[in-house]
Structure formats: C-alpha cells, structure tokens
C-alpha cells in the first residue's frame, strides 16, 4: 500500500441516506477507499449500487432534502469535505475536484457556444478577463484534440457529435487543472470506436497534468483498460477493494466473481453464461445479513443473519465476506477454492 | 459450424434483397424534400431456419432501421423481403397484419414498450386477442403458461409493469413475443439496457427458448461480447452498408474488413493479462445524408487507396461462409 503522503482522497465509512416518504433509503452505507496522486481508481457496480451517489457526495452535490451525508469522512488532502462550508466547497468544485458526466448533451447549455461555456469556468474560478478566458478556452479545445478549435469554440453543443461533446466536457472539467477528476460513466453513451478515442485522451491528459481520476463505470472492460485500483460496490457498500491486477487475476468476493462470470466473452465461447440468480435488493428493504447473501452461491446461516465487516489484508486490499474470516460456518473447502 | 449459408440442409427463412430505406428530409417554406438520409442503402442477406444472425455496428449504421424495415414498421424505399418465399413488401396492410404473428420483435427499453396502465394479463391477453389464436376462455391459462416459459410466477399475472425490475420487464416483453408462436423474433438491443448479471439471465433464457421452440433470431446489438455469445452468423454494418458477413468463428478469429478489425480491437477486454494492440480510428462516422463516395469507410480507413475513394466495393466471398466488401482484401 502507498505511503500516507501519496493519498489525495481518503473516503472512510461514508454513509449517504435519502429520507423519502416511503422510508429511508440507505443508498450509500459503508464506502471505503483511498485514491493516490496520479492514479486511477475504478468505482464499479451495477445500477443502484450507490457509485454515482458516492461521487456526488464527494462533491457535496447531494440534494438536501431528501439526501444527507449521515456519517463517515471524506478526507481531501487531510481535510474533511463533509465539514466544509458551502462557500469553501464552491472553491473546491471545478478548481480542485471536477466532474464529467455520462451524457454530455444534458450537461452542456444548449444556447451558449461551447467556447463561452469553458471561458465561464475560467472567469469564475480563476478570475480571468473575457479575452484571456476565451483564448484559454480555445487552447483547452486544442488540448482535447478538437480540430480547428477557433471555429469549434463558437459553435453550440448541438452542432457537435457525441464524441466531440464529451471532449468539450473534458476540456471544461480540466480547464482549472484539477487535482481530481471524477468521471461518471464518461464513455457509456458513446460507440466503442469513439470510446477508445476518449479513454486514450483521458490517459494522455492524466499523465500530462498528473491528476488523479475516479472512474465510475459498470464496464469491467473499461476498468481493465484504465484503472490502477478498484472498489467494487454492491447495494451501497464496498465489497472488495484491491489493485486492478489482483481483481482480474484473483477476485475474492463472490459478487465480483459472479460479475466476471456473467460477462459474455469476446475470446471464448460458452454454451451458457453463469448468471447471478435473482435481483438487486430494494434500498428500502435490505437483507439483514450480508447484502449479497440472497444471491450468493456460498451463503450460509451466518451470511444471512450477520453483516460482514470490511476485512483488510496486509497488502491493503479489502474484502467484505464471511468466507475469509475464522467465523465462517460454511464448507472450508469452498473458501480455499476461491483463494483465502 | 452448425449453420452456413452453403449448407444445403438449411432452409432460408428470411431473404432480404437490395433493401433500401431512404428517409426524406423536408426543408424550405414549401416543405419539399431537399435530401435523403440513406439509413439503409442496398443490403442483401439471408437468415436460415433456427439460426441466430446478428447485426452489429455503431449508432446510425442502419441496424435497427433494417429490423424495422423487415417488419414494415417503417415502409422501406425499395427491395424485397422474402419470408418463407413470400414477399412481405408486396403484401397489403391486412395480409401483413396476419403475417406479423410469425415475425415478432423485442425492443431495448422494456419500460417504454409496455403499457404502464395494463396488467401483465392485459398486455399478453391483448396480444392473444388481436391475432385470435387462443379462444377467450383459454387465454388466462395460456398466459400463465407463457409466464412459466420466461421464468415468471403465475401469481404475478395481475401485476403492472412498474412492479417489476428491468430484467423481469424484459421477460414480459419476451412472453408477449412468444404468445404468437412466431417463427422469427427480431431482438433490437434486447439486453442493452440491463445490468450484466441480469443480462446474462436474459441471454440464457433467449438461448433456451430458441431450442425449445425452434426459433430464428435476428439479433441487433452494438455489444460484440453479447453477439459472440448468442450468434451463429454475424453481419457488420457501417453507414447503411454491409461491410462483412461471416459465421461467428470466422468473423471473430479472422476479421477481414478494416472496420471490423478496428471495432473488435476497440472493445476493452476485462482481462489484464491480455493487452491487445488497439486500432484507434480517427474522426467520427460521416453523415448518412451525404455519405462518402466509393467505400463509405475510406475517410477513416488506415489502409485506404485511391480506388476506395471512387469505387463502391461489393461483397465478395472469402470462403463459403465469409463475405467481405473491401478493395484491399485479396480474395
């Protein structure tokens, strides 16, 4: 595990709940990970696992009410973001931590030119003058690989293709040279050939600017392609946290294993996919024990009744599963097979 | 390989010949047609009985338009679509309505394609009533049977779409398609909106139903992993044209067209031990309103020569089960 000073963001037992008419939804309930300088961390999981809520919590963009961060710490360079005032957060957002979203069309203003929108960020956060900000905006468009940036800067979002728009979003997010970029499914809406272009661009800019990236995705392919470290989330909790190398070579949590087995492969043929049975539990009605227990092939009495803690290994990797503890009441052979 | 075009024991179920779908663009104060979007431009292919043919390609390549044109959900501009030898495009509206029970479709978004104010029994009952294949008093029984095929419980029959998860809703969509006892099912991005763990369940279901009811699938998808899993043969489209069509093994192991190669190499593989060389295409897909002259891929093709800019390549056979439309590939 890295030295303490390398860690730029340390999230500890984050809990974000939503207080609705139907009850309390514990959308994020136990998220732990740390992000190192210059590294990419993947936040992986299926719909409703809380990965987007986690990222919005980091930027304190959770609408309140109904949402509220009810517990845990988000340490950014040692300072707890959950305790910052709104005006402090405003200087951090965009400047030090910025974010790009899945659908660039809905995050861009349709009636302003893209150049103006990037310049606005610079004028707001860096107190640049009009002319200076515009020139910098054109520079940013050039940096993200948009051809003839002077002309493109004057165009409105609808005049650009999906891939171009995502490049504009990246230009806007990186305009103030943030230390952390949070990318929420940045390529999910794009075709694969365009996705390849955008991922390549993000990697190149990360090296040039030395920034850290949190890559939120449901696509394990994108994880293998871009991430150094991965936190796998299920039903509001981190269930496994390890290096990307380890995750693919030796996945520990049964949910991680299940995800990999249900993925149709490009390099081999199987007659039947090993699907994970059942559905994700409702956030209003979570199982009392391990949240994956109702779908887990190895679940025992212990798993169904008691929630496992996040277990930390000597190398810093973590797993939330009873199989890896001495209390495990199931077949020890199963546990050995999956590699305790 | 189970299915090949040349295999004489295989009977073609659907033959598409020179299909064109050009959508007019109206403009000016008189609303005259000023141009056309050439969404599908002269494509031909065959689907044999009992096989799965997939159409892959990126947004705007014409894969969904092809599916819709076959069903005449949009009237095609020209071409023939022979279903068991009968031309669907020459039929009257009424004849076509009768034919539709043999050709069913499953759409991407199960929530948008199910009426939120109808219960499952009403949704499936309506389908049965329109085609009138089951007498009214036996319908409920038949609906319960259908739910069983797709892995839903009989007690869920009176529930509404919002009470189901995304995967379950897609199962209802599949049950509705099965209700007609169809011969061909067109699956238009049928699993694209689902999470991988649920997607795997639905893919397994589609495969087992195919065996059980001897179904033929036209499977439209942008996800090559899914396509590899479900298909017997695969057709790759780019800007309204077929660029390559082959049996699955040949296409994935030995892709010939530069576009197919780039498409396959662009997919991130969830395995860190296998880092493949990536071909990154420059630029975007050109507009289908004024597609490039010659080969439509030449503007992005790393190997393009002068001939590609002027002459449209036709499909030529590499071997029995593998055809490619490219000037560079030496056949």
Automatic annotation (TrEMBL), chain A:
Localisation per UniProt entry: Cell membrane
Name recorded for this polypeptide: Peptide ABC transporter ATP-binding protein
Chain ranges of the ABC transporter domain: 9-260
PANTHER family linked to this entry: DIPEPTIDE TRANSPORT ATP-BINDING PROTEIN DPPD, OLIGOPEPTIDE TRANSPORT ATP-BINDING PROTEIN APPD
Coiled-coil ranges from the UniProt annotation: none
GO MF entries: ATP binding; ATP hydrolysis activity
Family annotation (SUPFAM superfamilies): P-loop containing nucleoside triphosphate hydrolases
Keywords noted in UniProt: ATP-binding, Cell membrane, Membrane, Nucleotide-binding, Transport
Pfam family, one: oligo_HPY
InterPro entries, A to Z: AAA+_ATPase, ABC_Ni/Peptide_Import, ABC_transporter-like_ATP-bd, ABC_transporter-like_CS, Oligopep_ABC_C, P-loop_NTPase
The keyword tRNA processing belongs to this UniProt entry's keyword annotation: no
Gene Ontology biological process: peptide transport
Record-level GO cellular component terms: plasma membrane
From TrEMBL, chain B:
Entries under SMART domains matching the protein: AAA (SM00382)
Cross-referenced Pfam families: ABC_tran, oligo_HPY
Keyword field: ATP-binding, Nucleotide-binding, Transport
GO molecular function: ATP binding; ATP hydrolysis activity
InterPro entries (alphabetical): AAA+_ATPase (IPR003593), ABC_transp_ATP-bind (IPR050319), ABC_transporter-like_ATP-bd (IPR003439), ABC_transporter-like_CS (IPR017871), Oligopep_ABC_C (IPR013563), P-loop_NTPase (IPR027417)
Example GO BP: transmembrane transport
Family from the record: Belongs to the ABC transporter superfamily.
Protein name (record): Peptide ABC transporter ATP-binding protein
Organism: Brevibacillus fortis
